[in-house]
């Protein structure tokens, strides 16, 4: 056996140790606020827009803290806030929509007057001088 070769038992033990250390490091990265899959949202990674996230954090919709220049909030709290908003019905106005948008009636009146033989001049646009209805 050459001096640079290790026995197979040592290599197997080192491989097990490296797998264990890798899993511990992976868990630590995911748990850290700056980790790629961590348990926190910042303004860039939040499921809503940047300004909405910062406004909601400022208003206290969910707990948030500032670390350096970043505002961080726990993913589970932000997701719970989103779920609570998704289950409530959107606000609907009790007023009824108008029967007409107003333009259809004016066009119908214009066409009826023209059909009766009366001349109705079209209004001219102030900007371009082109005729318009």
TrEMBL record:
Keywords attached to this entry: DNA-binding
MF GO annotations: DNA binding
Protein name: DNA-binding protein
């Amino acid at each position: 056996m050459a001096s640079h070769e290790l026995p197979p038992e040592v290599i197997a033990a080192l491989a097990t140790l490296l797998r264990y250390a890798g899993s511990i490091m992976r868990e630590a990265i995911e748990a850290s606020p700056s980790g790629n899959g961590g348990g926190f949202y910042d303004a860039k990674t939040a499921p809503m827009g940047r300004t909405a996230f910062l406004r909601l954090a400022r208003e206290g919709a969910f707990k948030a803290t500032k670390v350096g220049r970043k505002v961080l909030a726990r993913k589970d709290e932000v997701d719970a806030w989103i779920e609570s908003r998704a289950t409530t019905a959107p606000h609907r106005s009790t007023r009824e929509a108008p029967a007409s948008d107003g333009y259809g009636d004016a066009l119908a009146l214009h066409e009826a007057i023209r059909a009766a033989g009366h001349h109705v001049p079209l209004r001219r646009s102030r900007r371009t001088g082109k005729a318009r209805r």
